[in-house]
Please model this.
Amino acid sequence: MIYTVTLNPALDKTVEIPGMALDTVNRITEMRTDPGGKGINVSKVIAKLGGESCAAGILGGESGKMLEKLLENENFTTQFRFVEGQTRTNLKIIDREGHTNTDINEPGLTVTAAELDALLRELLAELRPGDIVVLAGSLPKGAPQDTYRTWTAACKKAGARVFLDADGALLAEGIKAAPHLIKPNDDELSRLAGKKLETLEELTAEGRKLLERGIERVVISLGGRGALYLRKGSTIYAEGLRVPVGSTVGAGDSVVAALAYAEAQGLSEEEAVRLSTAAGAANVMCSGTQAAERAAVEALLPKVRFSRLRP
Model:
């Protein structure tokens, strides 16, 4: 079973504003609202791929109830705890004329250590050896920076494989517990390394340092350039696919979803690379944080090109 954890979920309101400009009136031409947050996005994609998952997280207020209601139509189960406050609403602005995607994210609600511990206990009660836990996204106010380190260690002790997708201090703390897989993008890995990493060689070298710390797999997303897939004794570079862009929001989550699905299904390394590359591209073609259909992903699979680099 795959469990996704979103401690700071959101209602994602995606709007289209042709020729958006600052310091003037902008008019919205299209709008949609989706339940969002990185872990929830992962569960949505897993469902489209044909897999099963449970989305866990913390919600609050009327916006939290609306998010939960919107998820009733999704093909996965949920395990939410409600706390005081309001679940945040994030605004995603797409300007097709200017070829830009702008995110404006609210900070979200505040949690206590007791509320986080309660959700963790509920998750651990469900975990079985071999399960996959995806820890993804930002933390709500009140959560300690070492939350992902604590959760990773606890889930590993229960026999689960942990996939971590975070940034900054949250990633730096989380990797101290050696999750099974991490998926930083090139900017996030640069921040972790404390220096700008640009070439494939530089990114690969830094990723290999993380493998030496006990992490089994490091996947480095490179936006339109594709991605690097690292494990001991193997380095694969997958080229980016050229597709019409609907929204880049959730593209990285789609890659994580495909990797988790591939792991749960026991797919080969090459199959996982193809599937995650195609899933990421297919979801870029969608509007908002809706997940691409399995047929759209499969249509892109033959177009995926990758090569093995020197480890």
Remarks:
- The longest strand covers residues 53-60.
- The chain has ten helices and 14 strands.
